[in-house]
């Protein structure tokens, strides 16, 4: 292909003419992006073919990671970096008068996910390939990723996202590998040769066409595959209006998370889940048959991992294939299934645990329902032996109860490994939320603390910091991120700390420029950049943050002796379209911003910014420029968090509760290098169980709280009428489920302390350094090695 700049330029110009049918003089930036993307994809194809060949022949155990979300973001720079091409390409393009950064900005984010769960899957793909593990991803090729957020008058408006509008250069359509997925119909039960057989008939078929993305590891020859399934009409439609059929079929891979407040939306979501699972399982079995053959040995060669419960139908689908297509006995099929499938739980919040009404499930997936019923019956029999006569206990643990199928229970029963995503979360699963399952299957439970790929989140997102680190400790940390701990040697090194601060300043400038470009606001880069970016949810408590901003504003207005280092509070968050309360909080943030930013008496010291349309590519600019990272969820509610790790790795200091992975971050950075506040998880869980918290008392006894609460409804915000009454009511009338008022005092105290420490720049920089030094543990390379060894039993290939 090309090994130096001159070859690159020559190839680039040739390719441009071929692909775009234009001369260089006529071509646009998009043509350049498109050309470069195709060149890079071709560049990886030799290694891609070789890697697939290795998997076909080497008989090494492989893992398939099934996920309803893959939040990949942009891939151009990531691929250039992993292939070691950044310099050659950058310089070659420069000679042609093209800025690589400008081309990168043209690429739309592949935003096939919501938040942490989907981004984790993407980080895992990068780590699997970079560590040479035989690992494949399976997901859905949504036509529209997560909605694009616009803010109009302070309200969130959702627009359909259009990442495929200009085509996606990284994907390869594999129509030859399509699979038909059946829905609806009925199951005929017959005796054939003395054996009961089940035929799923009169079905409506949807064709799943794979689009494969190459996942190139970092400076290695391994190129793994992420297979995204596209829903298309089957060539043999049933007697139905063809246009309706086409539309309904394509809707299966049209949107990530269709609105499921109505049955139609629910059916569509369930269809998506089975579509992903059936196509993936059957394509896994198809290649396994070619490579190994003997399905009785499946679990020795293949591990199938389900990311949360969305792909849990992998369990009955694998059973179906083994029973109906391979003619196995129930016991053999079950043995194979539970030795093949492993499951990660990502939340303990009961409203997020999936349940499907039987009335929806059974008609859509009649054969799968029969299998789930049988799994349930056998499991209930086992429970009966353990707890004879205790119907209540059995009912609580059953997979099907009260006309609903509990997906987490199916996952717990049908897998050999169940893991939580941070130490505290796993303990809560074992001791509380899933304790009854832990009693029966203690050996299944294990913890795998989340991680993030340091290649995207440090090397790519923060090149100046990466360079400084390499100057300090050499470049081995890039392969072995735990070596970042060597940075601790510079904690008294004034000159190193000075350089660290210069890097931060540079990154803050870049973000400030973006804010100015988007909002017209001018931002003081000497102010503390205090940032909270994540999905909007009550338990994440963006509300606590903004109420505290209101308090600071009041204090600045009323107390002339009040001193504070200037701060810029920055928010970024999407609210789920049907989540009314979360949208109210977005409106509140904007209303406060409006008031505070206009006030010339305070706006030198206090500013509030909301960055529209938070997404992976924007996140890459945000994390490197933060001074303070807000990780303020109600303790026990955030399973892990991963944004917290991205901030830490970029030298921000956490203001956080003892929740999720914050606890482990505190251990790694040192207790002196993090600002911890608020109720611990045990007390929250205790209140949840036994009551005893009365938010009204905090309203009456703390006049700061009373003032900001009253300001929500007393006209303090002009023209806001009853806008914020639902927030007022949730905190006072509904007793503040997430303990916002309970933690207000300790939050404002720790924030004041953080502000004071910032004035001592030397101490601050030292703390920042110790965060970077402690962050190596949170590389997803460590996480993936643990999954590989403890759960999947797979080994890396050698290069
Ligand atoms: C989803 C929903 C949807 C309905 C309303 C309530 C609700 C609450 C939580 C969720 C989260 C579902 C699963 C999830 O995304 N969990 C996230 O997984 C991340 C990766 O493990 C982890 O870092 C986050 O803490 C966890 O929230």
Keywords:
Rossmann fold; alpha/beta; binds ligand 26V; globular; 32 helices; 16% strand
Structure description:
The chain has 799 residues and is α/β, with parallel strands linked by helices. It folds into 3 domains: 87 residues, no CATH class; 364 residues, Glycogen Phosphorylase B (Rossmann fold), CATH 3.40.50; 265 residues, Rossmann fold, CATH 3.40.50. Helix content is 49%, strand content 16%. The strands form 6 sheets. Strands 1, 4, 7, 8, 11, 12, 13, 14, 18 and 19 form a 10-stranded mixed beta sheet that branches. The protein has a 6-stranded parallel beta sheet with strand order 22-21-20-23-24-25, sandwiched between helices. Strands 15-17-16 form a 3-stranded antiparallel beta sheet. The protein is globular. The chain starts with a helix and ends in a 7-residue tail after the last helix. The mean pLDDT is 96. The chain binds ligand 26V. The site of ligand 26V has 18 residues, from helix 6.
List the helices and strands and how they pair.
Blueprint (H helix, E strand, L loop, with lengths): L4 H16 L8 H29 L4 E5 L3 E4 L2 H8 L2 H10 L4 H7 L3 E3 L3 H15 L4 E6 L7 E5 L2 E5 L12 E2 L5 E5 L2 E7 L2 E7 L2 E13 L6 E11 L8 H9 L12 H29 L6 H4 E6 L6 H12 L4 H11 E4 L10 E3 H7 L1 H21 L4 H7 L2 E2 L2 E3 H7 L3 E4 L2 H11 L1 H6 L4 E3 L6 H7 L2 H11 L20 H26 L8 E6 L8 H17 L8 E6 L7 H19 L7 E5 L5 H7 L5 E4 L11 H7 L3 E4 L5 H8 L5 E2 L4 H10 L4 H7 L1 H9 L13 H8 L7 H20 L1 H14 L5 H13 L7
Parallel strand pairs: 1-4, 1-13, 4-12, 13-14, 14-18, 18-19, 20-21, 20-23, 21-22, 23-24, 24-25
Antiparallel strand pairs: 2-3, 5-6, 7-11, 8-11, 9-10, 11-12, 15-17, 16-17
The chain binds ligand 26V.
